[in-house]
């Protein structure tokens, strides 16, 4: 997956559950990260900053392997 700024992505539940990030957070993930598309804002190593515009929430960081890119 070749992500770049502005790409629309969403989290993949199977890849996020039981991950390092899941063990460091509340395991009850909000459904919007799996059901709506968020915009890639920034990169730091293997992590991607995502903003979900449909819901008034702060941006989140997820590992790039836990994301699904919207089909063109």
Outline the fold blueprint:
Blueprint: E1 8-11, H1 13-16, H2 20-23, H3 32-35, E2 38-44, E3 47-51, E4 60-63, E5 67-69
Antiparallel strand pairs: 1-2, 1-5, 2-3, 3-4
Give me a quick take on this structure.
The chain has three helices and five strands. The chain is of the alpha+beta class. Strand 3 and strand 4 form a beta hairpin.
Description:
This protein is of the alpha+beta class and 72 residues long. It contains three helices and five strands. A five-stranded antiparallel β-sheet has the order 4-3-2-1-5. β2 and β3 form a beta hairpin. The protein is globular and about 30 Å long. The protein starts with 7 loop residues before the first strand and ends with a strand.
Strands of the largest sheet, in order across it?
4-3-2-1-5
Q: Which of globular, elongated, flat, extended, rod-shaped describes the shape? A: globular
Q: Termini separation (Å)? A: 13 Å
Portion of residues in beta strands equals: 25-35%
Multimer state: single chain
Q: Could you name the key traits of this structure?
A:
5-stranded antiparallel β-sheet, alpha+beta, 72 residues
């Amino acid at each position: 997956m070749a992500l770049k700024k502005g790409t629309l992505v969403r989290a993949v539940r199977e890849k996020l559950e039981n991950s390092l990030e899941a063990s460091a957070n509340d395991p009850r993930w909000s459904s919007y990260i799996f059901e709506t598309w968020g915009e890639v804002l920034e990169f730091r190593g293997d992590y991607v900053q995502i903003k979900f515009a449909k819901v008034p929430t702060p941006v989140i960081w997820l590992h790039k392997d836990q994301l699904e890119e919207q089909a063109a």
